[in-house]
Design a protein that fits this description.
This protein has about 290 residues and is an alpha/beta fold. It has two domains: about 200 residues, 3-Layer(aba) Sandwich (Rossmann fold), CATH 3.40.50; about 60 residues, no CATH class. It is built from six helices and 14 strands. An eight-stranded mixed sheet has the order 3-2-1-4-5-14-12-13. A hairpin with a 4-residue loop joins strand 9 and strand 10. The chain is globular and about 50 Å long.
C-alpha cells in the first residue's frame, strides 16, 4: 500500500463502484471539473501573460477530481491533492487513478491538514465548493491562508469561492434533476435527483448546517450523504483575511447574466461591485 503523500504508480483496477456511491453522485451533481480548471488557468494567465502554469495544489481535494484532471492536461503538469479525511483519498486511489493512465504518476495524494504549508511550491492552488468554510474561527482561517500562501511560488494564485445573497441564508430544500453519466471508472450512473437542504442558520455566528441527499431512479434515497457544518464567510471578511496574511493582490469574480437577466451565462467576470441578487457565487483570486 502506498503511503499517504506518495505518488501513485502501478495501480490496479478494482470492481466497479455502486451506482448509489455518494462520491460518484456528488461529482455528477456538484463538480464542473473542466469549467473550474479553465477558470484557474484563465486567472493565472491574466496575471502571467505568455506563461503556462504547471504545478497545482487542490486543498480539501476529497476524491481529487481537479488534481487528476489537471495532470491529464499535459505531460509537464503535476498536481497535489490534500485532504484530512482518508476515506475519499482511498476512493480516488481505487476508482479514479487506475483510469488516469500515465497521468496518475503525476498526481500525489496527501492525507494532511491544509493549515500546514506544503512543498513543492505551486503555481496555482484552490479550495473550492466552499470547503474552506469548515473553519468557523478566524484564527483557523488565517492559519490556513498563511499556509496556502507559503505553499505558492512568488506570483502564484490562490482561488476560493463563496456564496451569499438575499436567499442564501434561508432554510430551504432545493431539488435538481441530474442526467445519467459515467463515473470515473466507467460505471454508468442512472439519472437521479440532487437535493440541497439548508437546515439551520444562526445569524449571530453565521453558522450554517446543511445536507446533501440523493433520490435515485429506482426510488431509493441516500439521505444525508454529506453533512456541512460551516461558517458563511462574507466577501469583505475574506478579503481582509487575505490582506492580513500577506497576499499582495486580490480580486473578486462572478458569473454574468444572459440577455434576460434570469440565468447565468457561464462566464466569470472581474467585479468592483456585486449585485445583491437572490443568491450569488463569487470567486476570490489572491496573488502572492
Amino acid at each position: 500500500m502506498k503511503k499517504p503523500g506518495s505518488p501513485v504508480s502501478g495501480v490496479r483496477r478494482h470492481s466497479p463502484l455502486s451506482p448509489r456511491d455518494p462520491h460518484a453522485l456528488y461529482e455528477v451533481a456538484v463538480q464542473g471539473v473542466d469549467w473550474d480548471l479553465d477558470f484557474l488557468e484563465r486567472v493565472w494567465r491574466y496575471r502571467h501573460p505568455g506563461r503556462e502554469p504547471r504545478l497545482f495544489r487542490e486543498d480539501f481535494c476529497s476524491t481529487a477530481a481537479l488534481s487528476t484532471a489537471w495532470a491529464r492536461r499535459g505531460p509537464d503538469r503535476r498536481a497535489w491533492g490534500v485532504d484530512l479525511d482518508p476515506e475519499p483519498l482511498a476512493w480516488a486511489r481505487r476508482y479514479r487513478l487506475p483510469w488516469a493512465r500515465e497521468a496518475a504518476k503525476r498526481v500525489t495524494l496527501v492525507r494532511g491538514d491544509v493549515r500546514v504549508a506544503r512543498r513543492p511550491l505551486v503555481d496555482v492552488a484552490c479550495a473550492l465548493n466552499f470547503s474552506w468554510w469548515v473553519f468557523r474561527e478566524r484564527a483557523d482561517l488565517l492559519r490556513y491562508l498563511r499556509a496556502a500562501r507559503a505553499g505558492l511560488k512568488p506570483g502564484g494564485v490562490l482561488v476560493l469561492n463563496l456564496y451569499g445573497g438575499l436567499g442564501a441564508e434561508k432554510l430551504l430544500v432545493e431539488r435538481s434533476a441530474k442526467p445519467a453519466e459515467n463515473a470515473p471508472d466507467g460505471t454508468m450512473l442512472p439519472r437521479f435527483t440532487y437535493v440541497w437542504e439548508q437546515k439551520q442558520f444562526d445569524p449571530l455566528d453565521r453558522g450554517l448546517l446543511a445536507y446533501i441527499h440523493f433520490e435515485l431512479k429506482d426510488g431509493r434515497r441516500v439521505r444525508r450523504a454529506f453533512t456541512y457544518d460551516w461558517r458563511m464567510w462574507t466577501v469583505p471578511e475574506t478579503l481582509d483575511a487575505l490582506t492580513e496574511v500577506g497576499f499582495r493582490h486580490h480580486e473578486v469574480w462572478s458569473e454574468g447574466w444572459d440577455k434576460g437577466g434570469r440565468r447565468g451565462n457561464g462566464t466569470l467576470y472581474r467585479r468592483t461591485r456585486l449585485d445583491h441578487s437572490d443568491t450569488w457565487i463569487a470567486y476570490v483570486v489572491a496573488t502572492r
